[in-house]
Structures are given as C-alpha cells and as structure tokens.
Amino acid sequence: MTTTYAALLRGINVGAGKRVPMPELRAVLTGLGHTGVSTYLRSGNAVFRSDREDEGALAAELEKALHQRFGFTVDCVVRGGGYLAAVADACPFPAARPAGAQLHVTFYDAPVDADRFAGIDASAHLPEEFALGDRCLYLYAPDGLGRSRLAAALARPRRTEGLTATSRNWNTVTELVELTRV
Fold first, then answer.
1. What is the pLDDT of residue 97?
2. Residue 148 CA to its chain's centroid (Å)
3. Residue 120 placed within a domain
4. 3-state secondary structure the chain
5. With contact defined as beta carbons under 8 Å apart, do 104 and 145 qualify?
6. Is residue 74 located within the same domain as residue 25?
7. Does residue 11 sit in the same domain as residue 48?
8. Does residue 93 surpass a pLDDT of 60?
9. Last residue of a domain, one of 36, 68, 83
10. Does 79 lie in the same domain as 10?
C-alpha cells in the first residue's frame, strides 16, 4: 500500500548555514525511490509517496542521504497524511480563533510525556497556551512566535532532550494536510 508522507526538516535555510535548495531536496527523495515528490515553501517541507510504512526508518534514511549530499546533519520528522489530518482535527484551539501565525505545532519523533512540561506555570504565560497531542505540541501565541515567552520555556533543553522536534505554523500544517490527502 502506498502512503503519502510529509518530511519535516529541522533548521534548514535559516541564516547562512544549512542551505538545502528545494530542487536538491526533491532529487534526494526521488533518489531514495520515493514518488510524487514535491516541496512546500523553502523551509524544509516535502511531500512524497512510499510503499514503506516505518516513519522512523524513512526519516533516518533521509537524514543519512542529506548528510551525504550536503555534508551536515539535518534532523527530520516524517509523518503520514492520516496522522497530519488527525493532528489538525485534534487541535484544542478553536479553528476560527487563531490566525495561522498565532498557532504552531511542534512535531516530535516520539511520544512526549507530559512530565517534561510539568514545571511550566501556564497561568504565568497567559494569554499564551499550549497543549500536548499525539507526538506533537500545540502552541497558541497571539503575539507571534518571536515574542513568545512560553515558546522559549517549552523549548528548553531539559524539555526536549533526546527528541527530534520541529515546528510549523498553522498555515503550513493545514497546507501539508491538503498536500498529503489521499
């Protein structure tokens, strides 16, 4: 059975380092035997089809191929279209409430235990809010991510240690849902 996936690359094309041109990313994915390869924006979002079902193995294979091609490490999270749709459907914030730049989803490569975030005083960050989902975290930041004190608290190393994490704004999440829809 063929599944449509999104590959979410962490920290590329930001600043002067870790440049991954989208045509080359498409070539890497095609070279790995995937079909229907496309990219969205230039911030590390790719969509592809594969007969393989192990998201972790797909991410590891892509990380290795990117390292061979570019000479630096790029962390990747790969998720199927069904999962992305479920993340969008499970959003704990009303769809009409946030603008795309106010709501973000951090995708993790593994399940995240709520204990990692237990020390955060949610009331101290209002009106910002967060909620955990299935291998993801939703962050509502009405003044934007760049001004969010809660985002900084959520990203502290002791909360993310041992995990690969990469965030996308709600506009990108909903577009990836559409691009991976079967």
1. 58
2. 18
3. yes
4. CCEEEEEEECCCCCCCCCCCCHHHHHHHHHHCCCEEEEEECCCCEEEEEECCCCHHHHHHHHHHHHHHHHCCCCCEEEEEHHHHHHHHHCCCCCCCCCCCCCEEEEEECCCCCHHHHCCCCHHHHCCCEEEEECCEEEEECCCCHHHCHHHHHHCCHHHHCCCCEEEEEHHHHHHHHHHHCC
5. yes
6. yes
7. yes
8. yes
9. 83
10. yes
Structure tokens at 30: 């095609």
> What tokens does 131 get?
């909620």
pLDDT score recorded for residue 98:
57
Q: ω into residue 92 within 30 of 0, thus cis?
A: no
Residue 157 has pLDDT above 80, yes or no: no
The length of the chain is 182
Distance (Å, whole) CA 128 – CA 103: 10
Q: What is the CATH number of the domain that holds 69?
A: 3.30.70.1280
**pTM, full prediction:** 0.93
Cα atoms found within 13 Å of the Cα of residue 14, Cβ hemisphere only: 7
User: Residue 144's CB: how many other CB atoms inside 10 A?
Assistant: 13
Task: State the burial class of residue 162 (Cβ atoms within 10 Å of its Cβ: 0-12, 13-18, 19+).
Answer: exposed
Instruction: Tell the burial category of 26 from Cβ atoms under 10 Å away from its Cβ (0-12, 13-18, 19+).
Output: middle
